[in-house]
Amino acid sequence: MINLVSLADLLSLIAILFAIGFVLAGKRRNFPTDAVWVLAGLLGLELFHFASNVLEWSGISAALDELEDFLQILTPMLWGVFFYVLIRSQQAETMRQSEERFRAVFENSSDGLLLVDDQGIVLRVNPAAERVMGIPATEIIGQKSWHIQARLPSATQFNESFNQQVKQSMQEMLSTPNHPLFHQLMEGDMRRPDGSVVYYQ
Amino acid sequence: MIQDNELITLLLAIGVLIFVLVNRSALNKLPDLVLLRAAFGVLFVGYVLTILEGFFWGKTLNLLEHYSYTVSAVLLAAWCYRVFIRPGWKE
User: Fold this and answer.
1) Which of A53, A108, A185, B80 could staple A9 via S-S, CB 3.0–4.6 A?
2) With contacts defined as CB-CB under 8 Å, which chain B residues touch A22?
C-alpha cells in the first residue's frame, strides 16, 4: 500500500537510480577513479536503503530492515570518505598544475637555472644553463653544485683557494635561510669545458 | 524510542559535518559543490529528525525524515548530472 512515507522512499529510489545512470553514462569523463568507486559504493548503499524502505513502508516486506539498519551506519562514513577523496584529488590536481607551470617557466627561461637540494645536489637544470655552462644536463644532474662550479674555473681569478671559497659560500647559503648572498648580485667569468670564456651575472 | 544504529549514524554524520566545515576552503574548489554539500546537509537533517521522532511528533517527524532523504537523493542525482553528464567540466 502506498502511503506518504513509502512515496518519499520511492521517489528517493528513483532519484538514486537516475544518479547511478548519470555516473554510468558519464563514466569516461575525466573524474578521479577512486572518487567514482566511493561514489558507486555510496549510491549502492543508498539504493539498498531506499529499496528496503519502500518494501517496509508499503507493507510488502520488512525482511531487509535489520540489514538496512546496520548498513545505514556506513552511509555517513562513505560520505566522509567521498569528501576526503574529492579533496585529495583536488589537491593532487592543483599540485600537478603548479608543477606544470613551474616546469614551463623553468624550461623556457632564458636565464640559466639550476635546482639544488639542501645538500647542494643538482636536481634539475634548464636548457639555458646547459648552453651557458657548455655541459650537458646528464653530467650536471646528481652532482654537487660546487663540483660543477669547479669544472667552470674563472678565467681571471681561478686558483684552489677561490674554488674552496666558492664551495664554502654555497654550503653556507644552503644551510642559512635568507643568506645575504641570495640578495647579492654576483658577476664573474668562467671557462667552459671547450675552453671558451663566458661572463655571467 | 531511539535506536542504537540511528544514534551511531548521527554521531558519524556529525564527524563528517565537522570534517566538511574544517576543509571548506579546499572543498570550495570542487565543481558544483553547493549541490553536494546541500545533499549531505539535508541528509544530516534527516538523521537529526530520526532521533527527534523518538521524543515527540513521531509521525510528522518520521515523514519529514523520509522527505529529507528524498531531497538529499534528488540533490545527489542533480550533482551527478552536473558532473558526469553536463558538458564542460574538465573537458
Assistant:
1) A53
2) 77, 80-81, 84-85
